[in-house]
Amino acid sequence: MIHYSRRRLLKQGAALAGVAAIGSPAIVQAQSDKIRIGHLTPLTGFLGALGAYAQLGIRMSAEEINAAGGVMGRPLDIQSEDSVNPATAATKAQRMLDQDGVAVLMGEINSASALTIMQVADRNKRLFMQIGARSDALRGKNCNRYTFHVDIPSTVMVNAVGKALVRDNMMKDKKFYTLTADYIFGHDLARAAKAFFDGNGGKLIGDELVATDVTDFSPYLLKIRQSRPDIVCSNLAGNQVTNLIKQYAEFGLPYPIVGFNLNTADAWAAGDGNLSGTWPTVWYHTSDVPASKIFVANFIKKYGKPPENHAWIEYVSLKMMAQAMNETKSTDTDKLIAYFEKQTEFDILKARKGYFRAWDHQLMQEAYPFTVKPKGKAKDPWDTLELGAAIPAPNESLESIALTKEQNPCSM
Amino acid sequence: MQFGFLLEQVVNGLVLGGYYLLIALGLSLIFSVGGIVNLAHGAFYALGAYVSVELTRYFGFGPAIVLSPVAVALLGILFERFILRRFYMSDPILSLLVTFGLALVAEQAIRMIWGAAPLSASIPPTFRGSIILGDFLFSRYRLLILAVVAAVLLGVWLLLHKTSFGRVVRAGIQRPDMVASLGIRLEPYMTVIVMLGVGMAALGGAFFAPISIVQPAMGAEIITVAFVVVVIGGLGSFWGVVIAALLVGVVRGITIHFAPAAGEASIYVLMFLVLMVRPRGLLGERIEKFE
């Protein structure tokens, strides 16, 4: 055996671990007749599982659009990469605009990465359709003219679940204990939750910040039990939600659990009989809207499993973008912005059409609270959730669940 | 009351530490005997989880938890014979590179076989819920893990300290040259050590699958904590790793009690402090070949 220093060995180990975080750039081919779309979404880390669905959704959308003749007769070319982290996301977005010749930027799930890409879009005066990140701040104090937001923001999710809780007598004078994801999205969600509790007579008796890479929740569960709340509430994100749900069921704490954010992939990964309570969603594959059913059937045929909400949202987002380019006969940023700002209505596979609100660029659309199907009622491992009625109700304006001008400090 | 809460966190931290131990002990053994930092150790942990979820579908939880580590340990034979064995005598950077590469390949392979979406897994109904002893709350399932870890630990200790196999291994850690000059080849012993190490990692993965998310990158996440435990405990020391694992669990629990947001950072601060005071780790021995 040769002699070497342990210290050197450890240093080299650490350096290698660092290399993993940087990731590798994609190989780019230049083809001028294609319309290139720059797509960034997390494929690794605590939101990676959702990003994988996002990629499937946008790919399927592009294939359908191209099979139908493309956009202005030109095929769409989706250049999709792992956004990794906020700093890398911004670097990649800039490179896509400068070197890869993309017409527009799309994607994201992570609110922190979405924020840095928004800044790139603003600096370069180029369009960014921010699809899957939900922090209020993105369409609030950080909003800019070049970014449009598709997914429902934190406040809408809080309202969707909060209203269901009020209806079920689980709000007034109840003691809430919340766990919050420790990054921009979680903080935002916690703020919206607190505002809802304050406005509806709920009492917040504890709120703990949880790092995004936490896998073991047992110390938090002990703290929850020590403060004996009436209801436990999750403001977590991605893998955190699945881990919490599994371990909450493991410890079997007696307090009902609800949450203000959940993606269906997180729920599917939670395991049989572990999930309970009321949660929000933007879309679910059991929706009985005919167009949605066709999309679900095609998706299952293609990928062998039902689409998750991030697959749906990427699918409809690219369709909206293609429609905008076709109608304006252009990929010009200003023309596209003007088209969206006209509050053009889009078919988003829901009962009601959606449109981007002109003053904050947020897509107005229905949202749903859901509960968990009782044991034995699910037809397959994906059919685990019972969708509640869409909010707002059919006779109310879509804007009635969105942030009002007073609540939202966005100015462009 | 405050003291009681704290004590509950300490006890819970010890339980969690026992689980870290399953992964860290194998990493430490492979490092001590072969001089190889096995960055692919997390991959075996992930494989253990995936294989157990797959087997649970056919055979149920009990058989899966036994078969999955065995299957992964058999894979460990191939890993040692065809990959690690080439690097015992070479520059350690090479073995670092090859195990790191292997970790990436394994993660992508898992993505290709099982998909990027996490798998669903649950605790068997018998072990659901918790037991309340006095003022303390224990998860039944974690008590089961604790019992298994204790049994595995005892087995490994007996193997290393009460058998001729263990004597050769321990001698191999300290004086590989002397072992060789006595006419004993260390390679077959390494095969067993690697089998044992990756088998324990797989057992950890199989046990944690029902209570944490089963996703392709799970291996990369656990390897960091395992590394921290090994560094704190010190090389070549069985009890060093045991104490370090428990310490990491307890420090994390206490930190979360007082400052939840700092929970994950606390274990790195602990490592920093230990390395400042004792660069060799808590019970690390002076190993000639590492000096």
TrEMBL record, chain A:
Question: Which Gene3D superfamilies has this protein been placed in?
Answer: 3.40.50.2300
Q: Show the InterPro entries listed in the entry.
A: BCAA_transport, Leu-bd, Peripla_BP_I, TAT_signal
- The superkingdom listed in its UniProt entry is Bacteria
Q: Boundaries of each Leucine-binding protein domain copy? A: 34-377
Which PROSITE patterns does the record cross-reference, listed alphabetically? TAT (PS51318)
- Stored Pfam families: Peripla_BP_6
Do you know which SUPFAM superfamilies this protein is assigned to?
Answer: Periplasmic binding protein-like I
Annotated keywords: Amino-acid transport, Signal, Transport
Q: Which family does it belong to?
A: Belongs to the leucine-binding protein family.
Q: What protein name is recorded for this chain?
A: ABC transporter substrate-binding protein
TrEMBL record, chain B:
What organism does this protein naturally occur in? Bradyrhizobium jicamae
Fetch the InterPro entries from UniProt.
ABC_transp_permease, BCAA_transport_permease
**Which family does the similarity line name?**
Belongs to the binding-protein-dependent transport system permease family. LivHM subfamily.
Per its record, how is this protein called by name?
Branched-chain amino acid ABC transporter permease
Instruction: Provide this UniProt record's keywords sorted from A to Z.
Output: Amino-acid transport, Cell membrane, Membrane, Transmembrane, Transmembrane helix, Transport
The places in or outside the cell where this protein is found are: Cell membrane
Q: Cross-referenced Pfam families, in alphabetical order?
A: BPD_transp_2 (PF02653)
What membrane topology does the UniProt entry give?
A: Multi-pass membrane protein
**Quick check: keyword Cell membrane in the entry?**
yes
Origin: domain of life: Bacteria
Membrane-crossing residue ranges in chain numbering: 20-46, 58-79, 86-106, 143-160, 189-211, 223-248, 254-277
Keyword Membrane belongs to the record: yes
